[in-house]
Amino acid sequence: MNNNKTETIAHDFFYIGGEYIGPPGKEVMSGQMYVEVLRPATVTRRYPLVFVHGTAQTATNWLKTPDGRPGWARIFVELGYEVYLVDQPARGRSPWHAQLDGELSVAPVVVVERYFTATTQGEWPQAKKHTQWPGTGRKGDPVFDAFYATHVPYIADSAKSQQLFQNAGAALLDKIGEAILITHSQSGPYGWLLADVRPSLVKAVVSIEPQGPPVVNMSMQQAQKGESQTLDDTQRRRWGIADIELTYAPPLLADQQLAVVRSPATRADRLPGWLQQEPARQLINLQAIPFLIVTGEASFHALYDHATAAYLQQAGVPVTHWQLEEFGITGNGHMLMLEHNSAKIAERVNLWIADI
Known about the structure:
By secondary structure, the chain is an alpha/beta fold. It contains 10 helices and 16 strands. It has a single domain, classed as Alpha/Beta hydrolase fold, catalytic domain (Rossmann fold, 3-Layer(aba) Sandwich), CATH 3.40.50.1820. Helix 6 crosses helix 7.
């Protein structure tokens, strides 16, 4: 890394959103979001990037890899982008209020090892291809311990988390203007939800292994129960790809559910998905925004990210789906922005962003 470049990066932070809640004399602010800003001496890119972390993580996810290499935030700043890093509301440096934000969950070591870092014995077909995590990926390894130390409690209620971010994210875009979102995992739905309420300000969305698949909500809690390979056929996510309201045409009324049909698996190493029954309702606010879904070769998301892309495409959303092995980028798990070849993946993503 060029040390001369790092010295020119300006660093700032602010809080955005939030509201005062409570009776007179006992009011507190709730829902505000911490935003960290990295800015090169000369911004050469038209749109800033807003990075949003996933489950149990914070903005540190993007600053540095657990083995000490520059993270995506630094890489993209040195490419000339202004970068905004957020701690989701009620997470990390964004305050959580027990009486307002509800129950917290944590990610146990065994789940993090099984699904993120030491997956070669995982129960999905692609797991054995995982080669890019630095270190053993297990408790006691210095790199794993550094990574697991970054995990923090997070709101158990997905709908609550999504609503809090949509509110704060909209306030952020109202402040900074047009931007490109880069989301990961749990924050994947935040991309479509923020684009839905600020379609003129979201210029593109890069969704790194977004939470899914459609209709069935594969949460960290389900992963802890070992349910990743046995998705049941009960509709759980009313809005298809989110737990809170999206703008469909024709609209989805209060007494209605999406009419969905099972989409058969096209390959032995993929799960079946869900699509809407035709004629499919359209996600009208997302149809002028380019979306990119990125999937690692060895991740459990290789089972079903194709279903998320297909669902969005059926709803009229322009989605490109990259499976990294198609570009000769192999061996990646779910935390691909932290793995050995993270800089190479960032370079590939930049090629797509640069065309926006």
